[in-house]
Write a structure and sequence with these properties.
The structure holds 2 protein chains of 2 kinds. Chain A is mostly helical. Chain A contains 15 helices and 2 strands. Chain A has a domain of 176 residues: MetI-like fold (Orthogonal Bundle). Classes of the chains: A mainly alpha, B alpha/beta. At the A-B interface, helix 3 of A face helix 1, helix 3, helix 4 and helix 17 of B. Chain B: One of its GO terms (molecular function) is maltose binding.
């Protein structure tokens, strides 16, 4: 027992050192020695039986997963395909001689898309696209910086730590619709914000103040989210690393740059990715805080909603599809450029896990090392 | 070895069973609703039977009481109240979606006065039989229930804009009657603001935020200067001198401070709060403000110090835009006779009186405005009746959502001084022509 633990890190040890960076380093070592980890006193198993058991397991897994896949196809696949189809059609809007709408939809090819880019709806689409991009960049940058700062404070605070954490989390716990109304009140013409500033800025009128009102409200709400995920990463950094660096004479800034930041990077990247995907679809805050008819805060989601509400289902579906593509491209680019570690970590870990599960049926009768 | 195989086979069977069960569940889910629909079709064989009533939130609970009374009298034609969200656009969304999929889920629809045209043109609602009498109903409200001359709904609740004014300040400044024109109102403001107690008050407040309320206020200004947003044939007429006078007055009022700058963010409630805290001398708002601004619990500083009058206009008394709800029968409901009977019940003198008493909703029956008992309880009724007599329904456009957005797009920048009224109206005329023309 003692000997085994000393020789090979058993797979079960891994979660303890689960900061991704460290985990990844130990992985190759572990995977090569995994077969050796099989406990002693086990009988040799015929190879064919392993293979058959393995194949059976795979088929069973596929079968057991199929209800989930079916549900996913229904709730994700079908709406996607349906929206894509809808974006190629337009609903009849003409009236017949008696004033009735000539019903039915007709195929228009890519016209909904060309209209969005260059046609009659061009200015509205590009305005919404610009707003969506503006909100994504400003809020994610602000939230990352503030969230990181929050995480560092939460991590270092000694007294009142629990209270501090709870209070930082409050904005995240408030439903967006409620916080939208709350901030609407703050940004009222005679509200708290104007009182503090000593000016009368019309935050909810159409214009730049409205954009900043949305950015402020969104940052207030979701910086704690980034803070919390980053805090989880921070707490996994072994104290010894900092101690060793301190012994080597590294000051606080260097320790932050060279130890803290690289080690929390995976957690931070996940948090930022989540925020990116979220803020690209931003809807409720501009809608409730400022109003859906105001172009300075109209996002792609709001535009698609407005169009659908006015029975222009084709253009609405086209906007939704374009937004979907935008989200996919941004997420892909983000993972490719910054987050290569995320997928790499997942990829190297999968074979190890599979091998481990394959050896499990042999437990108790496997070959001695 | 055999043991492994058995285990595997059992688990495979279990997996298949699970899969089959899921499939069956989905199928059952799909067919369940169909089966229900069929029973309701075959049930009875007449077009009488249980129905549903879809309408915005019943905040006072008065509606549920009326439905209960109906259900007690008609056990085989029970009505289920289906409350929609409180916000009008959320109601519209649900009603439209049900029409779009030809759903029979809603039988009687509570339609905002601006929606009748769209629902009629899409054949989502049935015409009201010609035998239905509209005598005793407010003419403007009946107009809002028609599409191309045919009655498609029955006016149920109405609403008209009123000029709320601070009677105490007017008296103090020696003004005997409330203003009937814009110029008079501005002159009165100057006199009132010369008094020390009203120095800081602003003159006029309306609904000028960029939302449906702006369409209402703009239409009223155009009507009050003798113009129309749409003529009798449904053609837009916003490039007329009258419309230009109206928008210029609005823009100038913002420029010279008659209407404070912050009014660009005002909806009904902002105006009411400003009025209640004594910051505004004149305000355009709906009758619901009366009760709230007369509260004696300290929430209002103007309790008993204000009165109402019809809206002012350019040369004489102005004209209000009509609000309210009309009731229509869904084209897809099975029990249309019951639905029509239920509408007759809800729009009867008795029901509308009960609604007024319980929820202060303005009735569409003219007789109720003359009732002395009601006039005593609701002192604003006489003023409201005057306002409703000259009220005009908003345009009956099939694509009302687009029309409303176009008006907001043109008027809002003109009020904040970013475009000049003439240019804004010229492009609005083009846009409205395009939206209402038959392609």
């Amino acid at each position: 027992m003692n000997g085994r633990a000393g020789r090979v890190p058993s797979p079960r040890v891994r979660p303890v050192v689960s900061s991704r960076l460290i985990a990844r380093k130990t992985e190759p070592f572990m995977t090569t020695s995994a077969p050796a980890a099989a406990p002693p006193h086990a009988k040799p198993a015929p190879k064919s039986r392993i293979r058959r058991a393995h194949r059976g397991e795979g088929r069973l897994a596929a079968l057991l997963l199929s209800p989930t896949l079916l549900v996913l196809a229904l709730v994700i696949g079908y709406p996607l395909v349906s929206a894509l189809r809808g974006s190629l059609y337009q609903r009849g809007e003409g009236l017949d001689a008696n004033g009735f709408v000539i019903s039915g939809e007709h195929f228009v090819g890519l016209r909904n898309y060309t209209d969005a880019f260059t046609g009659a709806n061009g200015s509205r689409f590009w305005n919404a696209f610009g707003n969506t991009t503006f909100f994504t960049i400003t809020t994610v940058v602000l939230e990352t910086v503030i969230g990181l700062a929050m995480a560092l404070i939460m991590h270092h605070a000694l007294r009142g730590r629990a209270l501090l954490r709870a209070s930082i989390l409050v904005p995240w716990a408030v439903p967006t619709a409620v916080s939208g109304l709350l901030w609407r009140w703050v940004f009222d013409a005679n509200g708290i914000a104007n009182n503090l500033l000593g000016q009368q800025i019309l935050w909810s009128a159409d214009g730049w103040p409205a954009k900043w009102a949305v950015v402020i409200a969104d940052t207030w709400k979701t910086a704690p989210f980034i803070g919390l995920l980053t805090l989880a990463g921070l707490q996994l950094i072994p104290a010894e690393l900092h101690e060793a660096a301190r012994v080597d004479g590294a000051n606080a800034w260097i320790r932050f740059r060279k130890i803290t930041l690289p080690l929390i990077k995976p957690a931070l990247l996940v948090a930022v990715l989540f925020r990116l995907l979220d803020v690209l679809r931003m809807f409720d805050l501009p809608y409730l805080l400022v109003g859906n008819q105001k172009y300075s805060v109209q996002t792609l989601s709001v535009l698609a909603f407005n169009e659908a509400n006015n029975l222009h289902y084709g253009p609405a579906a086209a906007y939704a599809t374009l937004l979907f593509l935008y989200v996919v491209i941004v997420a892909y680019a983000f993972v490719k450029i910054l987050g290569a570690d995320l997928l790499a970590g997942a990829r190297t870990r999968t074979p190890a896990r599979r091998r481990r599960s394959a050896t499990r049926p042999l437990a108790g009768r496997g070959t001695p090392a | 070895m055999s043991r492994t195989r058995t285990t595997w086979r059992t688990s495979r069977t279990a997996g298949l069973a699970a899969l089959a069960a899921t499939g069956a569940l989905i199928l059952a889910g799909c067919s369940g609703s169909d089966a229900k629909d069929e029973t309701s079709t075959s049930g009875g064989g007449t077009d009488r039977g249980p129905i549903t009533f879809a309408v915005g939130k019943d905040t006072s609970g008065a509606l549920q009481k009326q439905v209960d009374a109906w259900n007690a009298a008609h056990p085989s034609e029970k009505v289920t109240l289906n409350e929609l969200p409180a916000a009008a656009d959320a109601q519209l969304q649900q009603l439209q979606q049900n029409g779009q999929v030809k759903s029979s889920a809603f039988s009687v629809l509570g339609l905002d006065v601006t929606w009748t045209a769209a629902f009629a043109a899409n054949r989502w609602i049935d015409p009201i039989p010609a035998s239905t009498s509209t005598s005793g109903l407010l003419p403007a409200a009946v107009e809002s229930a028609k599409y191309r001359g045919t009655l498609y709904s029955v006016p149920w609740q109405t609403n008209g804009g009123l000029l709320f004014y601070r009677s105490d300040l007017l008296t103090a400044a020696g003004i005997k009657t409330p203003p009937t024109t814009w110029r008079e109102m501005q002159a009165d403001c100057a006199k009132i603001k010369a008094q020390p107690q009203a120095k800081k008050a602003s003159c006029y407040a309306g609904q000028f935020d960029k939302y449906e309320g702006l369409v209402v206020n703009f239409s009223e200004a155009v009507q009050s200067s003798g113009g129309h947003v749409f003529d009798a044939n449904g053609k837009p007429t916003v490039d007329t001198p009258q419309a230009k006078t109206a928008l210029t007055w609005m823009a100038d009022a913002f420029k010279d401070g008659t209407i404070p700058h912050e009014d660009l963010t005002y909806q009904e409630e902002n105006g009411r709060q400003a009025f209640q805290s004594g910051k505004v001398i004149f305000m355009r708002n709906w009758p619901y403000v009366w009760d709230l601004a007369n509260k004696t619990d300290g929430s209002s500083k103007v309790t008993g110090k204000f009165d109402v009058a019809p809206l002012p206009g350019l040369d004489s008394t102005g004209s209000s835009t009509l609000g309210g709800y009309n009731l229509a029968v869904s084209s897809f409901t099975k029990h249309k006779t019951t639905a029509r009977d239920f509408i007759t019940y809800l729009t009867s003198d008795r029901s509308e009186r009960a609604n007024l008493l319980a929820a202060s909703t303005a009735p569409t029956r003219t007789a109720l405005y003359q009732d002395p008992a009601l006039q005593k309880k609701f002192p604003y009724l006489a003023g409201l009746k005057k306002s409703l007599d000259t009220a005009v329904a908003r345009p009956q456009a099939v694509r009302y959502g687009d029309v409303s957005a176009a008006i907001q797009d043109a008027v809002y920048p003109a009020l904040s001084g970013r475009t000049d009224p003439a240019t804004a109206l010229a492009s609005l005329q083009d846009k409205l022509t395009q939206l209402t023309s038959q392609p």
